Amino acid sequence: MASTYEKLLSTVKEAAHTANLAENDYISLLSPEREMHISIPVKMDNGKIKVFKGYRVQHSTLRGPAKGGIRFHQDVNIDEVRSLAAWMTFKCAVADIPYGGGKGGICVTPSHLSETELEKLTRGYTRRIVSFIGPKTDIPAPDVGTNARVMAWIADTYSTYAGEFSPAVVTGKPLPLGGSKGRVEATGRGVLFATREILKKLNKSLKDQSIAIQGLGNVGGTAADLFYKDGAKIIAVSDASGGIYSEKGLDIPQILKHKKTGKKLDSFEGDFKRITNQELLELKTDILIPSALENQITEKNAANIRASIIIEAANGPVTTEADRILEKNNIICVPDVLANSGGVIVSYFEWVQNLQGLYWTEEEVNNRLENKMIEAFRLVWDVKETYNVSMRKAAYIKALKELVETQKALNII
Ligand code: NAD
Fold first, then answer.
1. pLDDT, tens digit, for every residue of 106-138?
2. From the CA of 217, how far away is ligand 1's center (Å)?
3. Of 230, 32, 219, the residue nearest 132 (C-alpha)
């Protein structure tokens, strides 16, 4: 069976073929520039040394420093990190921000570690990659299982080695360390902007839509909050412990209050039906927003999807095979490289603020984000109309054209 990265490559090649690009112009984008496999020994609280496996992949630095999050999750592996790094290359090109693509991860269940163990692991990981990251080379950010606190440990460890305060080495930092207002909510907010744009194209109003959201972390939780406040009816949500469903709509503020205490959804009580994550994906709903992990909608369940629109808040939630089935069933998919780009766009704003030492209000950050996302959506939509292709293919064509232009300017020999 093809790996996630191989499937991604087939999407890239198909887009290049449709856009009539010569292989010479994009072949270098098919192989990551640099991959690091690292081992991180950590003395655990019980005195035993445990060695964790970690990775950092710099897929492309053609358009700027590698940019992409760090994932702490038990299923992290090189194929996943490589794919996530490549998605970042295309996402940054779609959003037209001056970055390449990178990603990192450690194979660990963060909830099984104490705070001290997690800090030692993060600092150990940073020491292993310290010569390869930097504000002008490779800039990590949060992803699944990591947050502002983890970014603070990375920034501090890197600054110690660099011999100077270097907040711009990571984004998604706490505000006192140079984080940007609006960064925590940026990906979820961008998902809302992308959804508004597709609904405008379809002459539909958000208030009339029913919504199901898989995953209630940084991205899914913020999206649930913002969609609810915007008047949408959220009929189902889930986390790793399972999902809940109510046809008349869920009480999102109460659910998020429960989640904020660190508890899972399976201990939340109320007037709703419990469902599995699989059942959530197959619900009859207007909009489905996968916000957890990749490979959730596959050739096995794609034919059962009953949503009219899928907004990919997660990276890679729909496989290539599933994409074909969804397209045949006229289900519109707003692809990850566009829909969840709010996070990296505000990461870029954070980096710009760090480099210039001048900080913006939250309103300014949100307005700039909205303008960037509307523009990216418009350009992708134009490509979609020109070539009569899906939004995913259109996004890849747009990104490839940007990347190929840069490549040509470099005149690689
Ligand atoms: P997170 O760790 O904050 O939350 C992940 C959520 O998914 C949690 O609610 C968890 O319980 C749930 N989950 C885990 N396994 C699950 C499963 N098998 N089924 C259902 N739910 C499951 O992570 P996040 O930062 O919200 O990231 C979620 C997705 O969004 C990832 O694909 C990530 O790469 C992508 N993304 C994140 C950002 C960002 O700024 N954080 C930006 C762009 C894309």
1. 999 999 999 999 999 999 999 999 999 999 999
2. 6
3. 32
